[in-house]
Design brief:
6 helices, 150 residues, globular, alpha+beta, two-stranded antiparallel sheet, 6 strands
């Protein structure tokens, strides 16, 4: 476990660079798309810019204090996956829950992504149900398995 944490820390440091702007006009679904692109690019800094609370992104606020570890864990669960927003489950003026279809290997799962609006008006991911994604490397249940093509 210590080796895994060290590997995530090194990966996070390797993904350095200046934070990019969060598009204030991007709706919740667009933020999920940007976040999943950051996962695909192994850009943990960008992931931290798109994840946070109503007070701002984790990259901006430095909160929670272990945000780098949390982002690395999200990356570990979501890497190699593709995602498509299937719909909005609920929405208020400052919160949205999206149903996101996550495909990893031959396993398809519907995962709730909870979004929050910041004071500046932009949307951030504030929670992803990683239990719904499933533990990387473990087989998925037959009802979640994608049939082979053809």
């Amino acid at each position: 476990m210590r080796t895994l944490f060290l590997a995530f820390t090194i990966a996070l440091a390797a993904c350095g660079g200046k934070p990019g702007p969060v598009n204030v006009d991007a709706g919740p679904a667009a933020v999920v798309d940007q976040f999943m692109q950051a996962v695909a690019d192994s850009n943990l800094n960008r992931m931290a810019q798109l994840w946070g609370t109503s007070k701002g992104s984790a990259a901006q606020t430095g909160q929670p204090s272990d945000y780098q570890r949390r982002v690395a864990i999200m990356w570990a669960y979501l890497r190699g996956a593709t995602a498509k927003v299937a719909g909005e489950v609920e929405r208020t003026s400052d919160r949205s829950v999206l149903a996101v279809e996550v495909l990893r290997g031959d396993c398809r799962r519907r995962v709730p992504f909870t979004m929050v609006r910041t004071g500046s008006g932009s949307w951030l991911i504030t929670a992803i149900d990683l239990a719904a994604v499933g533990v990387p490397g473990t087989p998925c249940a037959s009802e979640q398995r994608v049939p082979p093509p053809g």
